[in-house]
Write a structure and sequence with these properties.
Distance between the termini: 10 Å
CATH superfamily: Alpha/Beta hydrolase fold, catalytic domain
Oligomer: single chain
Order of helices and strands: EHEHHEHEEHEH
Shape: globular
């Protein structure tokens, strides 16, 4: 079994129990996992409240915090992972890290900077449909990721809500969540 060092970034809800549970699942599979708190201990009860927290911090500061959290571990080659907004941040970090070993995106993506280049394996798990990751957006994102050299797999879960892996949210879909973790753990094992 291949073991990786993973930086797992939380969603706009903050560092909630579901993120710690996901980290424990990854650790049980033999990985070293870091779960930085980008919101300074604050959590949200709704997407709107989470966006308010994130907007108050600012995108540049959130990215700086994510970079600062990943930097001490990046020499060994990280796998970046994240939930929703955390996935978008993870994507930005992975595409900017020439030593990145992989990218696991749960419920989210980000724009791709001009001039980006990578050959890392990327796996995306997303609801279908997803109000934050529309069909047109995902198609364009996929093509751009392939154009910059990423080896991309996309898994869609029909009928699941946006953050369907979080058992404490109304979006939770146990069957989709278990399928996601099964595929994601295989992805990490094969990196």
């Amino acid at each position: 079994m291949t073991s990786h060092t993973i930086v797992l970034l939380h969603s706009t809800y903050g560092l909630r129990p579901a993120v710690h549970t996901a980290a424990e699942r990854l650790r049980a599979a033999g990985h070293e996992v870091y779960v930085p708190d980008l919101f300074d201990g604050r959590t949200a009860d709704s997407v709107e409240e989470g966006r308010e927290i994130a907007d108050g911090i600012g995108n540049d500061e959130l990215l700086r915090r994510a970079i600062t959290a990943a930097a001490p571990h990046s020499e060994q080659g990280l796998v970046y992972a994240g939930f929703s907004v955390g996935a978008a941040l993870a994507q930005n970090l992975a595409l900017g890290d020439e030593k990145a070993r992989g990218l696991l995106l749960l419920h989210g993506t980000s724009d791709i900077a001009d001039g980006a280049a990578t050959d890392i394996p990327v796996q995306l798990h997303v609801a279908d449909p997803d109000p934050f990751e529309t069909e047109d957006w995902l198609n364009a994102w996929y093509l751009r990721m392939r154009r910059v050299g990423a080896d991309v797999e996309v898994f869609r879960y029909r009928g699941a809500g946006h953050l369907y892996t979080d058992p404490d949210l109304p979006d939770y879909d146990e069957q989709a969540a278990e399928a996601t973790w099964s595929v994601a753990l295989d992805f990490l094992r094969d990196l």
